[in-house]
Amino acid sequence: AVVSTQSGHYGRGLLSVCYFDPENNWWVSKHIKKPIRSTILSVDWHPSNHLIAVGSCDFKCRVFSAALKEMTDKPQTSLWMPKLSKFGTLLAEFDSNNGWVHGVKFSPSGNLLAWVAHDSSVNLVNSANLEKVHTVLTSNLPYMCLLWLSEACFVAAGHNMAPDLYYGSDDGIVFGSKLDVKKEKASTGNMSAMARFQKLDVQGSTETEGTTLTTTHANCITEIRSIGTANNKVTKFSTSGKDGQVVVWEVDSICSAIAGLKI
């Protein structure tokens, strides 16, 4: 099945889960609407393909049953769905303080669910204890997306223009490291008199302090995708953003560049 989102009148959210009907040779969609009260910003399938997480502008992260009776693979009970539930059943709902939910993502096992919101928060819940939501209010600009690298850690990125690593477990969320290693500023000690005059004429200063970006991306990162895996871990991922760039990050190279980093 595939999924699409629509925003109706007054921002009313609508989630369309679509499947192919071979008998009639067309695509059929089923809708999840209640109790979503605003525009849907993010969705993610559970590894079982029978559950779906939804983040929206009503400050909620929700998990629904997306089991389709028309499909051949039948759903199984789990911690998220203790008893088999029909399509569209709300299984869990979490408040996201005071921010739109920009990104949601299940861990590789499907037991953990993480989401990021516009209040600069990073949130995590374990399906074994749905009453306990771990939240970290960061000092960064809001994250827009995230990706689990393994069952123990994930990266988040957004308006800060660089991917950050977080460790997630039953005990909560711990910040790991910024993964975009800061570039060293080139020395201007041997700058010629002409070069100094040109900078002074154009910038009003001989220094570029405060105007040179230290990140690879030059604008908000809107998506993170896995492009390489090994032993149930992501070995390579890409980020794309509003600067028009697609950047590829190799986990081994990042670990080599940052002392003591473990992913």
Radius of gyration: 22 Å
Q: Can you give the mean pLDDT?
A: 88
Described by the principal axes of the CA atoms, the overall outline is: elongated
- Taken as a percent bin, the fraction of beta residues is over 45%
Largest sheet: 4 strands, antiparallel
Secondary-structure topology with pairs:
Blueprint (H helix, E strand, L loop, with lengths): L1 E6 L5 E9 L4 E7 L7 E6 L5 E6 L3 E6 L24 E6 L5 E6 L5 E6 L3 E6 L2 E9 L5 E6 L4 E6 L5 E6 L2 E7 L14 H11 L17 E10 L2 E9 L4 E5 H7 L6
Antiparallel strand pairs: 1-2, 2-3, 4-5, 5-6, 6-7, 8-9, 9-10, 10-11, 12-13, 13-14, 14-15, 16-17, 17-18
Structure description:
The protein is elongated, with a radius of gyration of 22 Å. A four-stranded antiparallel sheet has the order 4-5-6-7, with no helix packed on it. Strands 8-9-10-11 form a four-stranded antiparallel sheet, with no helix packed on it. Strands 12-13-14-15 form a four-stranded antiparallel sheet, with no helix packed on it. The longest helix has 11 residues, at 193-203. The chain is built from two helices and 18 strands. The protein has helices spanning 193-203, 251-257; strands at residues 2-7, 13-21, 26-32, 40-45, 51-56, 60-65, 90-95, 101-106, 112-117, 121-126, 129-137, 143-148, 153-158, 164-169, 172-178, 221-230, 233-241, 246-250. By secondary structure, the protein is mostly beta strands. Residues 6-11 and 183-188 have low confidence and may be disordered.
